[in-house]
Design goal:
single chain; Farnesyl Diphosphate Synthase; mainly alpha; 70% helix; 15 helices
Length: 295
């Protein structure tokens, strides 16, 4: 991330994550070390940035969003730890470093992922800086639980694994990606929207549409980068989708049509932000960054 405001979001959530994660010297120290390794290493912090940028669009104090931003990043980090395991994607490299199970061991990686997921919900339940209304907190917990469960991210991963080596339609691939990647991106935006006491129903509709479009565009761009990127730039092993015969947009549509679809979805996301005017500038810049990134 090269923009100062994006760096600011990243530094803010990293500091908050450092406060919430157990210190490595606290027992069980090996597990806590693995949790911190999985979370605090290099990362784009896309989901927390979406949370904070949505807060800026709605005029929400950012300290109210530290909890939701940490929660979505912890869920994302846990999912990467588990996705990299030999039983799933069997990756050795993540964010330019050995994956968690390579740095520690498979059992520790599984337990670290489990603990990170639990910590995400503890934060939503206990962070004193978040919105105080108990009903709103419950709605936020329900939203995140749905996004990362069998009807969201985990379900999408299950369908993705089942589709390996099989011909599928574009509609089926979209169904998978909306859940595997889009659900948590959507939740990152909507947790911020729920944190606002003044956001209108119309504003939330626009944000929801934006989140859905950019979530799918983000995954298509990931598919494209697996084809066009290299391992050193990506920070993970390039070409793994092709090697595993995974269903991807370039594989189904071709590279250029996939790139064009991502740009079309990106444009629709930007159009959804029009009613917010200059307040949505960070969100627009973030959407642009997501479409023009090389990692």
């Amino acid at each position: 991330m090269t923009h100062a405001w994006l760096d600011g979001y990243q530094q803010r959530v990293d500091a908050a994550l450092d406060r919430w994660l157990p210190e490595a010297r606290v027992a069980p120290s090996h597990l806590h070390e693995a949790m911190r390794y999985a979370v605090l290493g290099p990362g784009k912090r896309v989901r927390p940035a979406l949370c904070y940028a949505t807060g800026d669009a709605l005029g929400i104090p950012l300290e109210r969003l530290d909890g939701p931003a940490c929660a979505v990043e912890l869920i994302h980090a846990y999912s990467l730890v588990h996705d990299d395991l030999p039983a799933m994607d069997n990756d050795d490299l993540r964010r330019g470093r050995p994956t968690c199970h390579r740095q520690f061991d498979e059992a520790t990686a599984i337990l670290a992922g489990d603990a990170l997921m639990a910590l995400a919900f503890r934060i939503l339940a206990h962070d004193p800086a978040m919105v105080e209304d108990p009903a709103t907190r419950l709605e936020m917990i329900n939203l995140l639980a749905t996004a990362c469960g069998s009807r969201g991210m985990v379900g999408g991963q299950s369908l993705d694994l089942a589709a390996e080596g099989k011909p599928i339609e574009r509609s089926e691939l979209e169904y998978i990606h909306i859940r595997k990647t889009g659900a948590l991106i959507h939740t990152s935006v909507m947790l911020a929207a729920l944190s606002s006491e003044t956001a209108t129903a119309r504003q939330r509709e626009h944000l929801e549409h934006m989140a859905k479009q950019i979530g799918l565009a983000f995954q298509i761009q990931d598919d494209v980068l697996d084809v066009t990127g290299d391992t050193d730039t990506l920070g993970k092993t390039g070409g793994r989708d092709i090697e595993r015969n995974k269903a991807t947009y370039p594989g189904i549509m071709g590279l250029k049509p996939a790139q064009e679809l991502a740009l079309e979805l990106h444009q629709q996301a930007l159009e959804a932000l029009a009613p917010f005017g200059d307040h949505a500038r960070p969100l627009r810049l973030l959407c642009n960054y997501l479409m023009h990134r090389d990692t």
